[in-house]
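Supplementary Methods. Inverse-folding protocol.

Structures were first reduced to a discrete structure-token string of length 186. This string, shown here, constituted the complete conditioning input.
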């Protein structure tokens, strides 16, 4: 068995030595590896640009819904206040949530301006200038991330606090005095 393995290895070595070997020459530094700029030349950068645009759209949807969420939370807290319940922790969480929205909006607007300028990209999102396109993606992502960090976890904390408050303070369900359907055999 060992002899067969050694013979097989030697045969592979002899075959690989007999194959022609091509020399590899690197392109000069000034040559563009992708001369057809903008035409599927930089798919990773184009995909990154599209992902940042999608992130921008999702953040815009969040901002559009945030006012409605704040109004619903204020209504809920107002009703709880009318019942004499302690809502101080909910008010603090709502204030924290609401105060982060302008910071998110400001960062979102900056990202929107960067994406609208689309430096380094053409109208179809194809790369025209690698360095400018790369900087556009980095700057827009940084602005969106700044907005995300300003708001991170505040909405979830508020929603969970409202849910826990509701569970702790929900009114008891009335117990029906009569059964709606007679039991079998009655």
């Amino acid at each position: 068995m060992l002899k067969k393995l050694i013979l097989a290895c030697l045969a592979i070595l002899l075959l690989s030595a007999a194959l022609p070997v091509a020399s590899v020459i690197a392109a000069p530094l000034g040559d563009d590896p992708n001369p057809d700029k903008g035409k599927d030349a930089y798919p990773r950068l184009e995909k990154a640009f599209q992902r940042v645009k999608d992130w921008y759209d999702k953040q815009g949807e969040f901002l559009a819904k945030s006012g409605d969420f704040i109004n619903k939370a204020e209504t809920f807290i107002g009703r709880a206040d009318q019942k004499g319940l302690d809502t101080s922790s909910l008010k603090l969480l709502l204030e924290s949530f609401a105060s982060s929205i302008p910071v998110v909006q400001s960062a979102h607007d900056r990202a929107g301006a960067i994406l609208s300028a689309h430096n380094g990209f053409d109208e179809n999102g194809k790369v025209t200038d690698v360095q400018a396109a790369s900087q556009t993606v980095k700057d827009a992502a940084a602005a969106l991330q700044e907005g995300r960090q300003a708001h991170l976890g505040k909405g979830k904390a508020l929603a969970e606090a409202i849910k826990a408050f509701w569970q702790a303070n929900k009114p008891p369900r009335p117990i029906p005095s009569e059964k709606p359907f007679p039991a079998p055999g009655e």
